[in-house]
C-alpha cells in the first residue's frame, strides 16, 4: 500500500492518493489543482476506482469534477453534505468571498457508518461531525491509517466556527471514534503534517 500526499491550492489542503500492488487507487479530498492530480495518476500508471470526501468544504472538493470526469469514477460523500457540493453558501466558498465552487452531485451518498469495499480496498467509515455535520473519517486497517479531513490535526483540531460546526461535538467525535483506535494509527489529515493517535492522546491540548 502506498499513500501519496499532495498539498493543493492556496490553503494547501492535503489530498491523498492511496494505491495498491495492482496499481488501483482511491483519491481522498481532491481539493484543487485537478490537472496535477491527474498527471500524477497518469505518470504512475494508476487505475482510479473512486473519490472519497471527508467533508464538502470548498477546499476539499474543488477538483472533484476534474478528477471524476478524467477517470469516470464515483464520488462518495455523507448524506448531511450531499447538497454542499453544488452550493457555494454551504461549502464555504461564498462565506470567504471566493469564486463560487460548484461541483456536480455525488454518485454515492453514505447514510450511516459502514464498511466500504472498493476493489481490494476495505475502509471503515466513521461519522465524525464537529467541524461540519457530515464529516467522516476513513479507517484503512491494512495501512494502519485514518484519513480524518479537518477533524484532528498534529497538535490541533478543526475549526468549529463555520455553519454546522460544534466544538463539543468535535471533541466527542475525537474521543469516541478516533482515540479508541490503536495508538500507532497514522492520522492523515486535511492540513499540515501527519501524526498518530497515540501522540495526539498524549499531547493534543484541545481534547
Automatic annotation (TrEMBL):
Keywords: Hydrolase, Metal-binding, Zinc
InterPro entries per UniProt: MBL_Glyoxalase_II (IPR051453), Metallo-B-lactamas (IPR001279), RibonucZ/Hydroxyglut_hydro (IPR036866)
Domain Metallo-beta-lactamase intervals: 12-191
UniProt entry tagged with the keyword Zinc: yes
Entry keyword annotation includes Cell membrane: no
Highest rank taxon of the organism: Bacteria
SMART domains per record: Lactamase_B
Pfam family, one: Lactamase_B
Name of the protein in question: Hydroxyacylglutathione hydrolase
CDD domains: metallo-hydrolase-like_MBL-fold
Organism: Priestia taiwanensis
Example GO molecular function: metal ion binding
Listed transmembrane segments: none
Co-factor(s): Zn(2+)
Amino acid at each position: 500500500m502506498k499513500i501519496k500526499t499532495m498539498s493543493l491550492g492556496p490553503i494547501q489542503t492535503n489530498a491523498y492518493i492511496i494505491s495498491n500492488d495492482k496499481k488501483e487507487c482511491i483519491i481522498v479530498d481532491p481539493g484543487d489543482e485537478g490537472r496535477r492530480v491527474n498527471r500524477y495518476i497518469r505518470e504512475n500508471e494508476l487505475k482510479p476506482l473512486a473519490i472519497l470526501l471527508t467533508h464538502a468544504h470548498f477546499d476539499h472538493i474543488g477538483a472533484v469534477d476534474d478528477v471524476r470526469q478524467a477517470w469516470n469514477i464515483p464520488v462518495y460523500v455523507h448524506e448531511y453534505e450531499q447538497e454542499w457540493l453544488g452550493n457555494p453558501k454551504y461549502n464555504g466558498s461564498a462565506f470567504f468571498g471566493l469564486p463560487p465552487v460548484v461541483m456536480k452531485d455525488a454518485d454515492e451518498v453514505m447514510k450511516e457508518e459502514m464498511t466500504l469495499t472498493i476493489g481490494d480496498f476495505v475502509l471503515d467509515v466513521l461519522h465524525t461531525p464537529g467541524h461540519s455535520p457530515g464529516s467522516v473519517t476513513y479507517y484503512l486497517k491494512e495501512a494502519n491509517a485514518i484519513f480524518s479531513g479537518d477533524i484532528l490535526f498534529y497538535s490541533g483540531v478543526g475549526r468549529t466556527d463555520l455553519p454546522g460546526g460544534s466544538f463539543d461535538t468535535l471533541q466527542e467525535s475525537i474521543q469516541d471514534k478516533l482515540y479508541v483506535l490503536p495508538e500507532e494509527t497514522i492520522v492523515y489529515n486535511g492540513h499540515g503534517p501527519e501524526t498518530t493517535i497515540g501522540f495526539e492522546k498524549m499531547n493534543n491540548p484541545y481534547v
